Amino acid sequence: MFRILNFGFCVHHASLSGVSNSKAVQQSYKLARERYAALGVNTDTVLKQLARVPVSLHCWQGDDVGGFENHGGALTGGIVSTGNYPGKARTPDELRADAAKALSLIPGRHRFNLHACYGEFGGRKVDRNEIEPKHFKNWIEWARSLGIGLDFNPTCFSHPKSADGFTLSHRDKGIRQFWVEHCQASRQIGAAMGRALGSPTVTNVWIPDGMKDTPADRRGPRERLEESLNAIFQKKLNPKHNLDAVEGKLFGIGAESYTVGMHEFYLGYAVKNQTLVCLDAGHYHPTENMADKISSVLCFVPEILLHVSRGVRWDSDHVVTLTDELHAIAQELVRGDYLGRTHIGLDFFDASINRIAAWVIGTRNMIRALCIAMLEPHKTYKQLEREGDYTSRLALMEEAKTLPFGAVWDYHCLKQGVPVGETWLAEVKSYEKRALNTRSALPS
Ligand code: RNT
Ligand code: ZN
What we know:
alpha/beta, two-stranded antiparallel ribbon, globular, binds zinc ion
């Protein structure tokens, strides 16, 4: 409680507050550990497990899905980043520095998820179908220096050849082929990253293809998409280096009436071809629960990729907060024992707040939700369920909502050597002053 009282309104004083007092954090943890032990939960074991779960931070939160191709083109593909907060990364070095700052404020060892348009092309015009592992050499070196893995995505938007809203399902064979080649090249880059870093890269294919108004032919584009995917995945790659995922969605801005790669399409494709399915929390009807899909999809595909996001009224990609939906996702992963088959990625892009803070808030929330889910007496819930005692199951689940997980989470941050509670914010503010505010606006 004192931590809230001491916090006041000035984050620069936060480091003086009780929250950074490691003794207080340790004492609170001791009490919490006893409380959980009474429920049969070993908090030390939980924190060991938690420390081993990587979350893949998406590069595109750092610069509003811009990338470094210098084509001056706008973001297209029916996704939108709104806001004009100063200080966005303008170069790969700035983005790496910003991401490293964010990673230093997040407990655990994580991953970084790149889009193809974030390659380094040395000022040359390298079209999307010509990209090679060498264009990501600096990213690989950077990841190695931090001891983290990389994930990857072909960029099938923000390009003249996607301007009419179609890529892999385009009616023009040449355009289709261009995007097939881009995705093939992306898989090779994914494999090169995975090989270099000793940890498989998940390469996730998402395309924006769709129509604003009611199509006459829903079938043609879908059949062409299947054909394109078959060509992309034809070459087998070592799963120790690269894993393929496909991401469906409901609609995009300007593609409200028809999305070629909808969920059912990719689910069918992935089951047939045993690729990973990517479930993005913003890609379903607003009342649909993405968490409930996890145990269904994992009956039929070996592994899944998650894009944890937060849609507000639509697929708006808000920063992930500690919502009921996030709790449900974490609970499913823990209760179903799916962490070993799930690659957790994030997908949001908010340009209206400090972008590093956005990464930190969203990622800490993902890990916090996992922490809370791991701390629940879920084995007891299951036992009660097997016995048909739904009364006790409900009672325990409700009581668990106010267990002292905050004390365990704080202790986890302390042990992992990252700021406890809101004290990370002062570091972001000082980085903002030092590094971000000196960045001038992007040359157009
Ligand atoms: C779009 C998809 C996709 C993108 C990124 C940038 O709706 O969610 O994952 O957000 O590829
Ligand atoms: Zn996504």
